[in-house]
Design goal:
The protein is α+β, with helices and mostly antiparallel strands and 344 residues long. It folds into two domains: 97 residues, Phosphorylase Kinase, domain 1 (2-Layer Sandwich); 221 residues, Aminoglycoside 3'-phosphotransferase, Chain: A, domain 2. It is built from eleven helices and nine strands. Helix 3 packs across helix 8, helix 9 packs across helix 10 and helix 9 runs antiparallel to helix 11. InterPro entries: ACAD10-like, ACAD10_11_N, Aminoglycoside_PTrfase, Kinase-like_dom_sf.
Length: 344
């Protein structure tokens, strides 16, 4: 049994796949992906086919976190839809195999972009990649959740009220030091929840360009990854998450577009991206966008706080990065308050 997040019991995985996955044939070679903080992810290479395994980290975990079974379910449901996803193979709920629940899916070859400035591309190609990102997002929110069997994938009621409550509890459970701006942000979000507008869709929960695989030579999206935070909720949370990411500093840590001359780079402005999304979904406009943006900053701060706590507890997938990332909690909280103030 594998007891940490950095390694995988290759023999145990290989034996389980031999027994349960039709067509599987070793020898099996395992490599851990360093990207991603929440659910440790491994590339499984065999002579005939490559797979990816995502597992829950071992140890004591926050309730409802690291829901690899939900990731498996939503991606399986989206097979054949306008939302590209990897092919799901198996979910293993028997923790005795490797020490935690895991699932196995196809490895999707292609390009992954960590930097939204897309420095490796020409301006025209950059615009096409971001427009494809926009198309997939609109398609995701137009999925008929009844038809694909996901109507019960999230509870009823006001999504933002539910999410602010949930992430406030998650934040408190992993709090390591006082953050006055985070306290203020949580209170203001709870006090100003938007009224229901009838939109109830599938939401990804962490929609950004580095969670997508694009064609190796073109601009088509081959797969959207990392569905751990997905649920049934309000689509504007996903849209605002994209804009939130872009407002962060440029570079490996912020991975944003702050200060970038987007026109010269072939990239859309926030307003252009939002307008293209609205056009695709037949919406005239979006009111109160500052709230949705502030909510995204708040949720990301809560997630980062959880990563920091796991790093301090020795449970993180990449402890050194987790400690570094934790410094952003007050920054995200401040950005959230600023977004509310701009829209007030």
């Amino acid at each position: 049994m594998s007891a940490d997040t950095q390694t995988l019991d290759t023999d145990a995985v290989g034996a389980w796949l031999e027994e349960n996955l039709p067509g599987f044939a070793g020898p099996l070679e395992v490599t851990k992906f360093q990207a991603g903080q929440s659910n440790p992810t491994f590339l499984l290479k065999t002579p005939g086919h490559n797979y990816v395994l995502r597992r829950k980290p071992p140890g004591v975990l926050l309730k409802s976190a690291h829901a690899v079974d939900r990731e498996f379910r939503v991606q399986k449901a989206l097979a054949g839809s306008e939302v590209p996803v990897a092919k799901m193979h198996l979910l293993c709920e028997d923790e005795s195999v490797i020490g935690s629940m895991f699932y196995v899916m196809d490895h999707v070859p292609g390009r992954n972009f960590n930097d939204p400035t897309l420095p490796e591309l020409e301006p025209e190609e950059r615009g096409a990649v971001v427009d494809e990102m926009n198309r997939v997002l609109a398609a995701l929110h137009d999925v008929d959740i009844d038809a694909v069997g996901l109507a019960d994938y999230g509870p009823p009621g006001n999504y933002f009220e539910r999410q602010v409550g949930r992430w406030s509890k998650q934040y408190r459970a992993s709090e390591t030091e006082p953050q006055p701006d985070m306290d203020r942000l949580m209170q203001r979000l709870a006090d100003n929840v938007p009224a229901e507008d009838g939109q109830r869709t599938l939401v990804h929960g962490d929609y950004r360009i580095d969670n997508m695989i694009f064609d190796a030579t073109g601009t088509q999206c081959r797969a959207v990854l990392d569905w751990e935070l997905s649920t049934i909720g309000h689509p504007f949370a996903d849209l605002a998450a994209v804009i939130m990411q872009w407002q962060m500093p440029v570079g490996a840590e912020g991975r944003g577009l702050a200060g970038v001359d987007r026109g010269a780079h072939g990239l859309p402005t926030d307003a252009e991206f939002i307008a293209a999304y609205c056009a695709r979904r037949g919406l005239s406009r979006i009111d109160n966008f500052g709230y949705y943006l502030a909510f995204c900053f708040f949720r990301m701060a809560a997630i980062i706080q959880g990563v920091l706590k796991r790093a301090l507890d020795g449970n993180a997938s990449n402890p050194e990065y987790g400690l570094k990332l934790g410094q952003y909690v007050p920054i995200f909280a401040r950005h959230g308050l600023e977004a509310l103030d701009r829209d007030a």
